Amino acid sequence: MLGTSHIAPAPRARTREHAITSQRPQTRKPEPVEADQPWMRGLHADTGYLLYRLGLRSGQLFNAALQESGVRLRHYALLRYLATVEGALQRELSARLGYDPSAIVGLVDDLEGLGFVERRPAPGDRRSRIVVLTDDGRAFLRDTDRMSRDVTDQLLQPLSEDERNTLHALLLRTSEPDRT
Fold this sequence. Notes:
Elements: H1 16-22, H2 38-44, H3 47-66, H4 73-82, E1 88-89, H5 90-97, H6 101-113, E2 117-122, E3 125-133, H7 135-155, H8 161-175
Antiparallel strand pairs: 1-3, 2-3
Helix pairs in contact: 3-7, 5-6
């Protein structure tokens, strides 16, 4: 019709949770590795590569298990750390978790949007803010405790209980060499 204008519908509002989940790459199961291939024998002799593969698989399993919550493994690690302290400056989170400081800002923004953390004035320094776990954040961690154990059990299924304990002790010792 002449003289009528078509107005496009307003874009649908996006919540912070939707923004987090919609930016996620699709979780894919890694292709099976054929250890008999000559190129794989060299990689399988490299402990660093095997640790890398284990880390990838662990991240994939955790992210798949966390998918419905709108949280990713990096968010989860930050929440787990905050559960052990009374609050932390963002630079402390960066140093403790080994994440780039700019990544911490985004992770805290995401978690604050979900109501799992809040920024509060730092005692003794009004210019600084500490990140504190909220009651909702604590409840989320309680609700995900079983999921975390299930993912770890799935990841370490081929190992006996003694082997799991040994692996854990060795990983702890090598991941934080200054601790010993």
